[in-house]
Amino acid sequence: MAEVSEVKLFGMWGSSYSKRVELALKLKGIPYEYVEEDLYNKSQLLLHYNPVHKKVPVLVHNERSISESLVILEYIDKYWNNSPLPLLPHDPYQRAKVRFWANFYDQKFLTSSNPVIRSEGEEQEKAIKEFLENFKVLEEDFAGKFHFLNGKDPGFLDFVMGSSVCNHRAIEEAIGADLIDPQRNPMFFTRMTALKDHPVVKDHLMTSWLNV
Ligand SMILES: N[C@@H](CCC(=O)N[C@@H](CS)C(=O)NCC(=O)O)C(=O)O
């Protein structure tokens, strides 16, 4: 570990974005203080540390704040880089690929920006079709790849995807249709099932969170 550090995470229990950061901190064994935010009544500290987006998660490391979950994950990986458990691959091309898919995943599938839940009728049917097509694209990129970064422990993309499986399930319930299923998305399911069984995830995530 680089030096004595004071690490605080401002998060919210139901936030996939916060959850992925928590999992990364746990995996790397970084001690931190967790501060639960009420997003209907945001604390002055949250507004101070994330004046631009005013959202969780925010990581405060030795009084310096970092926001945006993907940026935070990269920071954690870079700062605590002598941990035996890297989040991103060393190879620059592979790193770029992981970042690409993480951005794709957030842009296409996460609830807040997801038109599947924000539309009705024909528009919703179109949004569901697009969701399935995008998932197919993601699924095809996984084909033939081992589950985790080092074959044993989860990495960046696993946490990005795993932290939001329960969101997909909530959307499915709301719209009354399956979005992801083991037949259509075998690679995703294999990867998420392995994630669910990983000790860090088992200890820190409710099983319903990763209901694959
Ligand atoms: N792109 C951001 C998204 C963070 C986000 O949307 N956080 C939500 C909670 S899940 C939030 O704080 N919402 C409060 C608000 O929109 O005012 C990230 O990756 O960290």
Short structural summary:
Residues 5-84 form the GST N-terminal domain. The protein has 212 residues and is α+β, with helices and mostly antiparallel strands. 52% of the residues lie in helices and 8% in strands.
The biggest beta sheet reads: 4 strands, mixed
- The CATH topology name of the largest domain reads Glutathione S-transferase Yfyf (Class Pi), Chain A, domain 2
Unreliable spans are none
Structural class: alpha+beta
First-last Cα distance: 34 Å
Mass-distribution shape: globular
CATH structural architecture of the largest domain: Up-down Bundle
What is the CATH first-level class name of the largest domain?
Mainly Alpha
Helical content stands at 40-55%
Number of domains: 2
Number of strands: 4
**Portion in beta strands:** 5-15%
Number of helices in the DSSP assignment: 10
Q: Give the averaged pLDDT, no decimals.
A: 87
Order of helices and strands: EHEHEEHHHHHHHH
